[in-house]
Amino acid sequence: MKLLIKKLDDKAVIPRRQTEYSAGYDLCACLDSPVTIKAGETEKIPTGFSAELSGTKEAVLLIYARSSLAVKFGIAPPNCVGVVDWDYRGEIIVALHNSSDSDYTVNHGDRIAQLVITPIFTPEIQETEELSDTERGTGGFGSTGK
Asked: What's the number of domains the chain is made of?
């Protein structure tokens, strides 16, 4: 399996893992000028590249927050995790929401999110009248305790 990267902008930064055991590849902003994400607002930040996961169609690219941006500055994807479907070939854009009380400026080359590749399952759907019994059953939120 290979992650193929097509630069759409010469100044785009190729995603890379920071350590041997990093799960995610850092995504960097590809900007002509800084973008300020105002407190409580969301901005779409381009990466300047498109991608293809070759060798399998049973995986997906997921865009997660960078822990440091989320914890220190309140900057994270508004939908928690962005999904890049296998057949999408357009530019990877990272939506970032500012949940803090202060504006935050993103500059060209800033690491803004991380890309994680994970397997997916797409089973056939079958409608049924019954599901198997379990100890938990239909117990919902909080039914297993704190």
From this structure: 1
